[in-house]
Design brief:
The chain is mainly α and 283 residues long. It has 14 helices and no strands. Helix 12 crosses helix 13 (244-255). It holds the Pfam family TetR_N.
Length: 283
């Protein structure tokens, strides 16, 4: 097994047992049977490890749900959504349990935005599915309906993830399809507006945090084009002087670098106020 992948999988087991806060790098290295030096060759900090862990689990989880719902031959997308979601939660149960148990952990701005990014992908899948199923009938209530669906998932997953009893995923999915259908067809009052969703979906990262991330990448990266692009982007963030076209070009220069994909997403949001529809990187 590749060492980086070994660390991710073993650390997840420890995090699930003890939580993020209570688990140290020393404990992780002992559990993996490696030295601290070997750990820091793969990850610069526990925070970076947690980020990679979230990306590893959530990108798989979201991809599986999206494929199940949008399969052209699927004539029961709502059932498939619930079924694949609960199967996925069981498959990634350590991660699911961790987020349920360790909600008090203080996430950095970057981690918070990463989690929100994956949550927004789930929102998009649900909304597109509801619009295809019910059309204009739910235009006024679709955001409330989306949160009801997410509430169903959170409530039932919290019940069965910590219970050793057998779970009939098919029956559970059927009952939630029925409940969702009733809500979609009979709800008339809405609470969540499009404006409220805009505010919630676009949380801001602190400028100081973004500058620190840029400085870190400048020190890490040796490639001259990417490095110079990062320097210019940092200068522009401190004192804007470049045109949007030049900024876009600089961001494009770093977009495909394996260590800059997430930073690219954040820069597009912060500098260009660009909220891509599903175009942000998954890795």
């Amino acid at each position: 097994m590749v060492k980086r992948q070994l660390i991710i999988e073993k650390a997840l087991e420890l995090f699930a047992k003890q939580g993020f806060e209570a688990t140290s790098v020393q404990q992780i290295t002992e559990y993996c049977g490696i030295s601290k030096g070997a750990f820091y060759l793969s990850f610069k900090s526990k925070e970076e490890l947690i980020l990679s862990l979230i990306e590893h689990s959530m990108s798989q989880f979201i991809s599986e749900i999206d494929y199940a719902v949008n399969n052209m031959q699927n004539d029961r997308p709502l059932y498939s959504f619930f079924y694949r979601t609960f199967i996925g939660l069981l498959k990634h149960s350590n991660m699911a349990k961790l987020f349920i148990k360790d909600q008090g952990y203080s996430f950095s701005d970057e981690l918070f935005l990463k989690i929100r990014y994956y949550d927004s992908l789930t929102d998009r899948i649900i909304l597109e599915m509801l619009e295809k199923l019910y059309g204009e009938e739910i235009e006024a209530t679709k955001y409330d309906l989306m949160y009801c669906i997410k509430g169903f998932i959170q409530t039932y997953s919290g019940m069965f993830l910590f219970n050793e009893a057998p779970l009939d995923v098919s029956l559970l999915s059927q009952t939630l399809v029925e409940k969702t259908d009733i809500l979609a067809k009979h709800s008339t009052l809405s609470f969540i507006s499009k404006d409220m969703m805009e505010v919630y979906e676009h949380p801001q990262i602190a400028k100081e945090t973004l500058l620190e991330m840029l400085e870190q990448k400048i020190n890490e990266i040796d490639e001259p084009i990417e490095k110079e692009s990062l320097v210019l982007l940092k200068q522009h963030l401190i004192e804007p002087s470049l045109s949007p076209a030049i900024v876009k070009g600089l961001i494009e220069n770093i977009r495909n670098h394996p260590h800059c994909k997430w930073l690219t997403y954040l820069l597009r949001k912060e500098i260009l106020n660009d909220w891509p529809d599903g175009t942000a990187p998954l890795s």
